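Handout, page 2. Input:
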Amino acid sequence: MDIEHQHNNPIGDFGHWNKTSEDVLKNKYPLHRASRDGDMETLSLLLVSGQQNPLLEDEFYGWTPAHWAAYFGKVCCA
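Output:
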């Protein structure tokens, strides 16, 4: 399922989101993706590894992982 259908298309408010965008999020911003998806297990593993910066802003909107979590209603990950 693509991001637009999975989240009732909130990204559509900002611009076009496609598979390439999703691939960039997956490969360059795994904390952001885990936060957006509410994936606490992956989020915890990434943070414990110390290899991810929770304050890193993405190239799409300048959002941190907390922004993604909050926007998508994943308060447990914010």
